[in-house]
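Data availability (excerpt). The following record was deposited with the supplementary files.
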Amino acid sequence: MVLLISGAGWVAGSAPEAQAQELDSLCVDTLAAAEAAYRSRNYQEAVALASQCTDRAIVDEMVIRAYRVITLASLRQGGLLQARSAVENILQIDPMYTADPVNDPPFYDLFVSMVRRETGAGEEAEPPDEDTTAAPEAEPSRSEPRRAAGTFILKPLGIGLSDYTGDMPGWTISHPFDFQEFRRGSGFPFLFHGEVGYQVAPRWSVVLGVQVGNYPIVGYNTGKDISDSWRYTPQLLVRYTFAPLGEAVTVYLDGGGNVTFGGAGAAKPGLGLSLGAGLDVPISTSLSLYAESRFNVTFPDDAIDGSAPTISSGFGGSFDLVNQLLGVGLRVRL
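Predicted structure:
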């Protein structure tokens, strides 16, 4: 009888262990399939497969591996909440967890570091003061997330290629990609651009920028020598990013108004619309690299170049443009 009871106890105790071993064995193939799906850009399938291996009965190493796939695939789909939850689960299992700088992409390393800072994972609590009679001042919780809104954005100095599209002699058709500036005019077509902005919501910001450029063929249709081909364009823009800045590589669009002035002789200030698009690539939590283009329409037609339209003025016969065909630089989040 004693032997029967002992045998039953042994079987009951070994059943959960056998079940855990079976789950571990199944997850070896499941996680391999999830990682293959991620590499094939089947992100939803990758999340679905990896989610099968998040049971805590499975060994920690495999659970962390599953949450890593979920995080990567969720970030690729813009699912920041799901990605954050997955990283928090990883840190609950291993508070000292860090991304692999060799095998993990930079955006994953950045995201894990951001969640770690916000949750305070892996940091030892400071010992309390000996004097406990005075109530300590209230301090914000270390786990409180960093506010995406309410952040200042600074673009100290960007450089790019400039383009003037406007009134040209009747035998010349003008458009933004004619590259006439490289064949004629005064100097090399380049510009500088800077801006300061304020992030009013996770994906929305208001930006005040200025574009200063040399447009070698501006005023070419006046029949006079081009004495000053530099133009100055302050801009007020509203910008939308398809993902919060600093958390992943993202595309952004912006639009607003501009004032363009400069030049000598018949030139005068012009007003118009500005439209742009760009790509933001985070380098760290506060610094990113960007590449962008922007087109600035100016009215009236004879403002910035002192020239009225001709029959063959080409693109934009009733207005002129001073454009940033391509610009690059660094963006700082303060």
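Summary of structural features: Confidence is low (pLDDT under 50) at residues 1-13, 132-148.
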